[in-house]
């Protein structure tokens, strides 16, 4: 009886310590660069959120998460700070891999099967031409860069207490 | 010689009158609801931008453009104001079509072949899991609505004078 | 001024008369049997909901809507009642077309691009194996028929006043 | 002769003990999160049905099965109860994996090749627009959530003794 | 009242005269050769089943239906008999079209969206390797012709009164 | 010289002993359930044809082959007889796996790349609508079950000595 | 009675006059250049085979057929001879269209649904790497041109009287 | 310096010994049957060309290469000769695997990504209907077998010294 | 006889006047904007090459051809000069359409079926990662713009007299 | 504190030594030939750029990178020089693998998901027909070889200091 009670408690304790901590399932690793496993593992062990890492690196949370998923290149500065923060050996091949050139776009299938990511895809599917028409009227013919690009995710709470996600996509024209 | 000069001028005049006015090519009409052709034609004839229409309807530019592309439903209010603004007969079947239920998602192929829209798709492809991880850490497990959703497109100019597009996606969690 | 006011009123009037009346956009007709256009047009002119038609035919709303979209076969009884209700000539080729054998499955693309229908698809994608496992434990090896099949859509309101859709799928094992 | 008889009996005995117990074939594991293998193995060894587990957790059978297939997130409560019920170590990485954020939608290919799951897909393909039309008439423009969503599977027997599956899908509008 | 009664009767009468008569919906015609429309129209007007036509031509029902759908070539004999049976002018271009070389395989999409045809596809998907293994053991390495090929569809009723479809596929090895 | 002669003979001897024995290449195993490898290996070692196994189990050859490919569920009776016939331990996990619920449809890609299986696919592609039309005229609207379904493969020799494959597909309507 | 007899005869007569004359079904025309319809129509009216046309033009049958299907460019010589042979006006836009640059590759879908063409596709699928290996050993690394390319189709009859098709593909290395 | 010179020489020596010897890269093995690796390895070690093996077996080079890629079945004679020629143990499971029934069509993706094989695919895409039309005029309605089929690859040199590949495809009608 | 001779001559004359003049087949028009038909028609009637038009507009040939295919936007200057050069009315809707915002990417299917365009696609398929690696080493992480982009096509003749195409792609990093 | 400082420095040092050195992530290796891993590893260890290797081999950078990615065949000369430059044993199987015949086209998926490579793909998608039209007018009907083909990548800086990539594709006509 005791034992059972303790088991339940220890998991509740885990949950209390890390209410929302993005980690990575081993079955997803083959779509990611080799260093992703190491980074996520260290992040989980040290119970760090992307917000905390972003603050330490002086970059946005989205940029840091993109780096973990192999979609962005770490500067040597980033790599050094990450190694220190996550307790990784600076001499490990990992550090030099992170400053390599990313082979982007392989993190998941398209169309996305993950519902949350599908919603973003659906926005492009439904509003794509509306975005284009408004941009064309505002900027003329041209294109918004998806590379020279910054992004943030913020939380807003409306008057009824309901939370809203606010994603900002900022790309050079 | 005169004639030539005049021709050139008249086109230059057209260009001067409508520097950036989103219209629709006939070859795209079979992907859109029947009323899109009428709306775009009237918009072109009256030389109205989405910004002007949005102001008249009290909605965002993106929402108005989405309505023109058949991705959003007009309220009876919207329909009445649009009919007035564009000089359409309120008794025409168009009005009742606009307040019908949209069959969304058909405006263009996926993956997009239009480069500007592809850039948005690429953002989802590359940053999808990064967005998910950050949202999960900020909001827990859940989803951002692509339906209970608002969006704006703004223009910013940086210190070097270069223009940036700022897209804001705001969806209920 | 008068005129404008009237215009707005007449559309508001239309909206008042038909708050929620499913119709069909002409651009969708090539995916449907030839009689769909006629049925939907008559339904719109007579301002009938599927609920009203279902009551008159003694069938479920989903079954009637499926018949309009060419996914179900009308019995001669159904055809006769529909012809009467919608004011169609019983001698028209339409009547005999409706009692033909439907060429099912062409109403829209798969995966669905329409967000509402995509949500149903997503349920199959995410919960498919969960449904299978539970059915196998309850019924043994076998299959649920999608043909010998009934379905209803109901509206429920929870204690907070929020509406819920309740879809019931009932298939022979 | 004896030996043969016994062999047959022992398998018959197995069958008698577990008439219908959903398990998982090793060849399917690479589509599932790492903890699925452990959960299913323990479920098989303890000869527990989803019905029994659902009762112990106070959740629906579909929700529990979805959790086993990595499509739903366990609450810390769920994780603690599951660990106890299945005899898993609460300190194992499994527990913390189960309360991670699921990477949904990878359990099987779409269109489904499994006939039972295909039947559900076929319902969406054939009746998708019928569902949409009826929902639009009942609720107006909008969408049924596939995330804020509950589901049950029940067994009914009609007057001729034939079994019917009744799936209820309940989603917030 | 009279009128209504009559309307219902006339459709019921139609149904009585043609309980099961395969026809073709106009929306399907663009997937078929030009003569299909004429043949099906004449078949419907004369209320002929494929069984009756097959008897008149001395061929199997499946072969005749395949000819109507443009999947088989009519012999001059077939064409002459069909013209006579369906009241078509023998000098019409139709006759010479029917004895042309069919451009097979375009009657519908693959995978099939029509549920009845999907069931046949599913048999190939699930049992394909089982058929191959049994054929290889019976015939050695080789192939069953899908061209030098005959097929019948028969109806059987089992002891409980339930109907069964029996399809026989006979191909040269 | 002797040696060479003997080598040739021993292979010829193998061929003489097993003129036509379906086996399975290791490269195909990842598409099949875990027990398929064991069953095929034992079948090869004991030099049993599906005909011999089918006779021992009292089932059709196609059903037995489908079981080997993981497309059908073994009854406990089947499992016990197979274990005895193939010399497998009845206590092995294999036995309980075989009476699990199959995850059907994964044995090979669709469209099939194997020419023999492609021929069956081609029959569905070319004759699908012909089968449907004939079935509809014979049975009315409905569907042939691909689950409540039996199948045989027979060999016929015509008057010129040429072999024909006769596949019979029998499904409940 | 007389009439019937005559009808049958006239079709038989047609068949006798043109035992094997490739024509084109109207439903295929949208995949072909505009002049294909005219060429095939004239060929049918004059009852010319590709063999006869090839002889008149001094080119291979395959080349002529490819020209009719819009896959090859006519030289002005070819165009002039074809116009004369088929009785076309040399001033018609057709002549200049034929000497335009073909937009190749649109004649049919890939993978082919036409069984005869699928057989050629299957040869590439099954023997592709075998051809490559043999060519590499004979020619070294390189490629066989599909543009600087000639092809013939011949008929051979073996000792048992069975016909064989012999296709020769000759491409510059 | 010496060392360097020797290194270069030894590789040049290798090249001299085997100017054109088709081998197989390990990354391709998972698309091929298990015995392909062994056959290719032995072929490379003994420095045999397909021409030499074909001569020893009395079959065409294409047939032998197809056998190496798992697209054709070895006769027991072939297997015995190959075992002798390549120094394989006749008792190894390899021999019995080679006389098994091939699971054809998996050697590479379609459409081919290998440029040399793509050229053959392109010939089918561009000339498919031309081949069909010429065959239909020469043979009537029917099909060329891709199974009862022989093929050769020859080298021709034209008057300018340029090499041409001549592929002959000979299939029973 | 005379007539024949003249016919041949007149076509030869056409060919002499326009040795190489890119035009457009009507069957391709539905993939292009509405004004493409008019532009190509006028270009053909006036027998103008892209080189001549490019010179008149002061732009590269590739840019002008892209404009004709609807992939680039005409400046008002371009539109005025084109209208003059091609004899189009400056007041026609065409002029304003050309200065609209192009809906790019629809000119043809991907992967390309046209062999010439496929070769360019194949270069991307085969050399894509090689280009990326070299660019990354030369420029660091980043991207080459496909929008802020210029291109030319030149002809070179090597010492053996063989012509070479030289395509230059110049994009901002 | 010291330690941290050093860590940061050592990574900065790495970055300083290799500002831009293309390497390969292990997760990409299964798309490449077996020798790619060895080549890239040696290149990284010796800190060689493709420019340096190209100079040593007397070939273009693109050609060398293509060789590393398995898209080109090494001459024995190339192999010998590479072995020397990278310190590989000339007797290793690697050397003989490199002079084998490449199985081209497998380096990445199409359409490309890597943004930099997608830009090249987009150029083909958007400008494909423009390139074809200009080439046809310059060269007549024909094709540009993608095999008998050379390519360079150069860096240019414009008057504003902005870098431009200049890719030259030169293929035999």
TrEMBL record, chains A, B, C, D, E, F, G, H, I, J:
PANTHER family: CYANATE HYDRATASE
Keyword Oxidoreductase: no
Function noted in UniProt: Catalyzes the reaction of cyanate with bicarbonate to produce ammonia and carbon dioxide.
Protein keywords: Lyase
The keyword Lyase belongs to this UniProt entry's keyword annotation: yes
Top-level taxon: Eukaryota
The EC number(s) this enzyme carries: 4.2.1.104
Family to which the UniProt record says this protein belongs: Belongs to the cyanase family.
Organism expressing this protein natively: Parathielavia hyrcaniae
Catalytic activity: cyanate + hydrogencarbonate + 3 H(+) = NH4(+) + 2 CO2
SUPFAM superfamilies in alphabetical order: Cyanase C-terminal domain (SSF55234), lambda repressor-like DNA-binding domains (SSF47413)
Active site residues per record: 119, 122, 145
Pfam families associated with the record: Cyanate_lyase, HTH_31
Protein name: Cyanate hydratase
GO molecular function: cyanate hydratase activity; DNA binding
Cyanate lyase C-terminal domain sequence ranges: 106-173
Gene, per the UniProt record: cyn1
């Amino acid at each position: 009886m005791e034992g059972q009670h303790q088991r339940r408690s220890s998991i509740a304790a885990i949950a209390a310590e890390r209410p929302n901590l993005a980690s990575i399932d081993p079955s997803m690793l083959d779509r990611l660069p080799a260093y992703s496993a190491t980074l996520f593992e260290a992040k989980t062990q040290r119970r760090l959120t992307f917000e905390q890492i972003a603050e330490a690196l002086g970059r946005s949370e989205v940029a840091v998460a993109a780096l973990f998923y192999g979609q962005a290149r770490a500067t040597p500065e980033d790599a050094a700070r990450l190694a220190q923060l996550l307790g990784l050996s600076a001499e490990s091949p990992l550090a030099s891999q992170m400053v390599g050139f990313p082979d982007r776009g392989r993190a998941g299938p398209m169309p996305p099967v993950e519902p949350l990511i599908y919603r973003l895809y659906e926005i492009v599917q439904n509003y794509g031409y509306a975005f284009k028409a408004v941009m064309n009227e505002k900027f003329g013919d041209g294109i918004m860069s998806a590379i020279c690009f910054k992004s943030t995710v913020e939380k807003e709470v409306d008057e009824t207490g309901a939370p809203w996600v606010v994603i900002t996509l900022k790309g050079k024209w």
